[in-house]
Write a structure and sequence with these properties.
Pfam families: AAA_lid_14 (PF25601), HTH_8 (PF02954), Response_reg (PF00072), Sigma54_activat (PF00158). The protein has 453 residues and is an alpha/beta fold. 48% of the residues lie in helices and 13% in strands. It has a five-stranded parallel beta sheet, with helices on both faces. A five-stranded parallel beta sheet has the order 7-8-11-6-12. The chain is elongated, with a radius of gyration of 29 Å. The protein binds adenosine-5'-triphosphate.
Length: 453
């Protein structure tokens, strides 16, 4: 994986040797011959790893002081010391002061590569652990075989390898972030970071610090912004419609020249980041009322992707339920129970305004509530009230009209509503509807025609 590595040594041949070996391994390197150049390079863009000479001759700071300065501002960047033969003890004390490891001159290329890979791997794992904690143990796989889901997968496969900016549209909980992660995973940036910034969860005052980071005087810990964090990877801007207008102007500038200034700083920071944004809001009306910049919209939505609401892919519900039961079972130790056909029909017919997130929450609640129950399956009457409240009310149910009709007409009204609901439940698939309702396909077609459906 290409990582941005900084090599700091006063001897030009050592600098070039280290950089050359790392470049042969596919890394991106920068070099600095003294402490000030090194601090400048770190300030330009935080590297993923630093090789640092212990004896920095002719520098304002020596290696150990440099180490302290780096650790004070960037405790997360691993630093590997380059030590001469006579100063192993200093190298060991550097490790006590926070260095990741050291290599001893003269070193073999293999050893250098190994230490670099290990340091990068460790810091990547640390980032991933943080990320995993944040996401608990949800699966990363997009579940569903309905036609809208298959189309969505095709779109993801098509846009992932390009570097185009994608805007993901869809209602809350429909899986926008999962789609963004799928694009990242299938792109050439898969091994780079995936950084999330949720505009709806950050106050306008904090937004620029989170996005651009801060520039602080030496010795004061610096906040690395999401853009810098996402270098060589993807920045996912969630709920972009909530981005303050002032920040929108700055983002537009980042998109034009891929550089930005940190809060409190004047230096230009250069990054290579693919931006994927998302919104559950109607951006067109935000543009019309002047709270979202139209030119920013066009730059971010080079490829718009629509994630359909769950109600438009009910056919996926049984598969989603099965997968969630398995996941939740593994997380909580509760053994999944089978659902009765009635319970499944109710779950599949409900409207799910909160989409997949709401379905998952209800399955979790259901599993917890039915844990103590003696029966080996979950029946419709055990479903949380929230679920039955979401069942679409048919007109005859809601206005009592059916009671005013003779049996023949009432039956017709019922048949119509029943069949419309079943067709909906099976995503418009007539064969599957016919199979479920127990009719021949051709007989169902005739019936639908006679009822005017
Ligand atoms: N196709 C899918 N297969 C499996 N799980 C899914 C799928 N889509 C979404 N989920 C799950 O549903 C939940 C909500 O998904 P996600 O956070 O991606 O939605 P979102 O549209 O980004 O939500 P928000 O608008 O609130 O940011 C997550 O737990 C996610 O794992």
């Amino acid at each position: 994986m290409a990582s941005d590595i900084l090599v700091v040594d006063d001897e030009a041949d050592i600098r070039e040797l280290v950089a050359g070996i790392l470049e042969d391994e596919g890394h991106e390197t920068r070099t600095a011959s003294n402490s000030d150049m090194a601090l400048q390079a770190i300030a330009d863009r935080a590297p993923r790893l630093i090789f640092l000479d212990i004896w920095l001759q002719g520098s304002r700071l020596d290696g150990l002081d440099m180490l302290d300065a780096i650790k004070a501002q960037h405790p997360e960047i691993p630093v590997v010391m380059i030590s001469g033969h006579g100063n192993i003890e200093t190298a060991v004390s550097a490790i006590r002061r926070g260095a990741y490891d050291y290599i001893e001159k003269p070193f073999k290329a293999d050893r250098l590569v190994l230490v670099a890979e290990r340091a990068l791997e460790t810091s990547k794992l640390k980032r991933e652990i943080l990320e995993l904690r944040r996401r608990s143990s949800d699966s990363a796989e997009l579940i569903g075989k309905s036609q809208p889901m298959n189309q969505l997968r095709q779109t993801i496969d098509r846009v992932a390898p390009t570097n185009s900016r994608v805007m993901i549209l869809g209602s809350s909980g429909s899986g926008k972030e999962m789609v963004a992660r799928a694009i990242h995973a299938a792109s050439s940036r898969a091994k780079g970071p995936f950084v999330v910034l949720n505009a709806a969860a950050i106050t306008p005052e904090r937004m620029e610090i989170e996005l651009f980071g801060t520039d602080t005087p030496p010795g004061v810990e610096r906040k690395i912004g999401a853009l810098e964090e996402a270098h060589n990877g993807v920045l996912y801007l969630d709920e972009i419609g909530d981005m303050p207008r002032e920040t929108q102007n700055k983002i537009l500038r980042v998109l034009t020249d891929q550089t930005f200034e940190r809060v409190g700083g004047t230096k230009k920071v250069k990054v290579d980041v693919r931006i994927i944004s998302s919104t559950a809001q109607n951006l067109e009306s935000l543009i019309a009322e002047g709270s979202f910049r139209e030119d920013l919209f066009h730059r971010l939505a080079v490829v718009p992707i629509m994630v359909p609401p769950l109600a438009e892919r009910r056919a996926d519900i049984p598969m989603l339920i099965e997968a969630f039961m398995k996941q939740i079972g593994e997380q909580t130790g509760i053994k999944p129970k089978a659902l009765s056909p009635e319970a499944l029909a109710v779950l599949q017919s409900s409207d799910w305004p909160g989409n997949i997130r709401q379905l998952r929450n209800n399955i979790e609640r259901l599993m917890i509530l039915s844990r103590q129950d003696d029966s080996d399956h979950i029946s419709a009457d055990m479903l949380p009230r929230e679920v039955s409240d979401m069942l679409p009310r048919t007109p005859s149910q809601s206005d009592g009209r059916i009671l005013a009709l003779p049996l023949r007409d009432a039956r017709e009204v019922f048949e119509k509503e029943y069949l419309v609901a079943q067709i909906n439940r099976f995503g418009g698939n007539i064969s599957r509807t016919a199979e479920f309702v127990g009719m021949e396909r051709s007989a169902l077609h005739r019936k639908l025609k006679s009822l005017g459906i």
